[in-house]
Amino acid sequence: MKDIPGTVREQLSSAGLAAKLAPGSRVAIGVGSRGIANIATIVRAVVDWWKEQGMKPFIFPAMGSHGAATAEGQADVLAHYGIVEETMGCPIVSQLEVVSLGKTENGVEAFMDRKAYESDGVMLVGRVKWHTDFAGKIESGLFKMMAIGLGKFAGAQRYHTYAYRMGLETVIRSVGRQVLKSGKILGGLAILEDANHDTAQLTAVPVEVMEQREEELLALVKSWMGRIPVEALDVLVLDEIGKNISGAGMDTKVVNRSVHGETNLWPNAPRIERIFVRDLSSNTYGNGVGIGMADVIHDRILEKIDWTPTYINSLTASTPAAIRTPIHFPTDRLCLEKIWPTVGKFDPQEVTLGWIQNSLELGVLAFSENLLPEIRKNPMLEVIDGPRPMEFDAQGNLGRLENWTAQLGATFAARH
Question: Which of 29-43, 60-74, 97-111, 208-222 has the least mean pLDDT?
């Protein structure tokens, strides 16, 4: 997208989000914790638009228990994305106190950030996408932010507990509807990304049609979903996982895993026998959620994990399996040498291997040479380099895929 500020201004103006507010009103802009492309530019454009309408905007974190469930931690998450007062031109208000909004028809008490509730109106800025834990017509997006994000730690913990019995989509919808009854929500700006993690569409959603419109947007973005474009892999290598990449550390619907321990349950993803994770993203703040979906990890990950936010996040989401410690070794070479014999093949040349930077960045991938016939049959793929020999450094470690400094085995890279 070439003109993000212009698109934001056009969308917000056409949606009439300011129609119910008098000049000088305080508008709370809720922003989440995911690694969204161009998020600082998008949020700044939203702030500028509200100022142009004569309002007084401020930004607050709408991210449930993330950031170790502390006000400082959540402000730090926003700051890491460039969302600070100096760059946004408005206050950043981070705190954890909530207001009860009463109970839903199925008995779930709903909550809202107190500072947001005390404003004249609340707007949400978030990405609409598939959720890593379930499949439905509403998954991750504005409704989920309105439910779990606005509820802070108090709400997020309760909602996930109810979701264990009722299903997360049911809880998201019922709590979201209860939040709408407060009359505080003005609407939202839905961010849609393409398969290459680029901003593809920005859509302002008025409060009157939030639920219906989000269903439509989710269906659209699912059709753009990036996938690993082969039928099966013996070993999938990821350079990194992290909360900035996916709520589950790695996108379960890309790597075909479940946060509860199941493997190969998503029909539209390739069958993957083993997953090797090499590192944590520097933007995950030590949160190691997702390691439990791997079969083997590098020792460096355990050295980087901050177990306090990891425990808080996992237990709040009722996903203890997602932080179980897999087998681990001190070098990439050892990790691969130990894991490949477990896929039922005696000859390493027969092992099919894929290598990705992370489950969000799927523009460039690397595959073992034995997958070349399948790759060439796919018109959506282009071979751009290879084959390359396996290159480990003196310590037995590989470089990162994004730098093309080393490749695993005789590989071909494909762009899609």
Answer: 60-74
Helices 168-180 and 152-166: crossing angle in degrees, nearest 10, is 130
C-alpha–C-alpha distance, residues 397 and 27, integer Å: 50
Is there a contact between 62 and 150 (Cβ–Cβ < 8 Å)? yes
Q: What is the pTM of this model?
A: 0.79
Under the banding of pLDDT at 50, 70 and 90, the label for residue 404 is low
Instruction: Compute the residue count for the chain.
Output: 416
Highest mean pLDDT among 70-74, 294-298, 398-402: 294-298
Phi (first) and psi of residue 307, to 5 degrees:
-75, -20
pLDDT at 163 over 80: no
Q: Which of 49-63, 123-137, 301-315 has the lowest mean pLDDT?
A: 123-137
112 and 253 co-located in one domain: no
- Give the model confidence (pLDDT) of 126-146 as tens digits: 999 988 888 889 988 999 898
**24 pLDDT higher than 90:** yes
Contact 322, 288 (CB under 8 A): no
Closest CA to 194 of 221, 216, 230: 221
Nearest-angstrom CA–CA distance, 155 and 362: 33
406: CB partners within 8 A, 6+ apart: 390, 391, 392, 393, 398, 399
CA terminus-to-terminus distance, the chain: 18
Specify the number of domains making up the chain.
2
Alpha-carbon distance values, 380 to 95, 136, 194, 412 (Å): 46, 27, 15, 15
Domain contains 226:
no
Share of the chain residues as helix, strand and coil, in percent rounded to the nearest 5: 35, 25, 40
Closest by CA position to 116, among listed 171, 62, 190, 51: 62
Chain centroid to CA 206: 24
What are the backbone dihedrals phi and psi of residue 2, each rounded to the nearest 5 degrees, phi first?
A: -80, -45
Residue type, 193: E
b (16+ CB within 10 A) / e for 137-176: ebbbbbbbbbbbbbbbbbbbbbbbebbeeeebbbbbbbbb
State percent of the chain over pLDDT 90: 68
Q: From CA 331, how far away is CA 299, in angstroms rounded? A: 7
Average pLDDT, the chain: 91
User: Quick count: other Cβ atoms within 10 Å of Cβ 264?
Assistant: 15
The domain boundary, picked from 167, 196, 221, lies at 221
Structural domain of 99: 4-221
